[in-house]
Design a protein that fits this description.
Distance between the termini: 43 Å
Strand order of the largest sheet: 2-1-3-4-5
CATH superfamily of the largest domain: Cytidine Deaminase, domain 2
Helix content: 40-55%
Shape: elongated
Number of strands: 5
Radius of gyration: 18 Å
Structural class: alpha+beta
Number of helices: 8
């Protein structure tokens, strides 16, 4: 099935007894892919002709269910066991948001998820990372590892200099407590950038 056909099938439950193919095509035309439709805001979805607020909320509910499903999966499965699945989780969790949002993933000794904490919500080009708060919460949870995930609303933008500085500061503080910073990820325009892959944690 094409992207718009998948949306058409889903919307047929939210908008019964109506031809929703034009709406599905309009959504893909406006946002580009199913992923971008799912991560769009209620306001932006509602603005598409034929949608309405209830249909937009239906799409956001599907988005939320997928995110919660992934989170439940990683409570029992090591975070990096299936890297493609993990990247999808990152995209669904913070991708497409109009402002920056930082999440801290606290991990047990098996690298399974203890908690996904929304650490801070910022502006369109800035968000706060507070290393001492992260260390304190990691100790409270008896976490053995930490991973950071945040988004850049501007497509195709990797780590800023401030991101790099805060990542190193956090890594050193965690290391002093025998806790590992496994990685820091930036989601931008559907791409997931890895600090470890870019040798920022060497």
């Amino acid at each position: 099935m094409t992207d718009y056909e998948l949306l058409e099938l889903a919307l047929s439950f939210a908008i019964p007894r109506r031809d929703v193919r034009p709406v599905s095509r309009a959504l893909i035309g406006e946002f580009g892919t199913v992923y971008q439709v799912l991560t769009a805001s209620v306001e932006d979805l509602s603005a598409v002709p034929g949608m309405g607020r209830n249909s937009a909320i239906f799409i956001k509910t599907m988005h939320r269910m997928m995110t919660v499903g992934f989170r439940g999966y990683f409570l029992k499965t090591p975070l990096f066991h299936d890297y493609a699945q993990f990247e999808n989780y990152c995209r669904l969790n913070v991708g497409g948001k109009p402002v920056e949002e930082v999440h801290v993933l606290y991990l047990d000794s098996r690298l399974c998820l203890l908690e996904d904490q929304c650490h801070s919500v910022g502006t369109v080009n800035e968000s706060g990372i507070y290393p001492r708060e992260i260390v304190q919460h990691a100790l409270k949870l008896n976490a053995r590892g930490v991973a950071l995930v945040h988004n850049h609303p501007t497509p195709c933008t990797s780590f800023s200099e401030q991101d790099k500085e805060m990542t190193i500061e956090l890594m050193l503080l965690l290391r002093a407590m025998n806790i590992t910073l496994y990685d820091h990820y930036v989601v931008s325009g559907g791409t997931v950038y890895s600090a470890r892959n870019m040798h920022m944690l060497d």
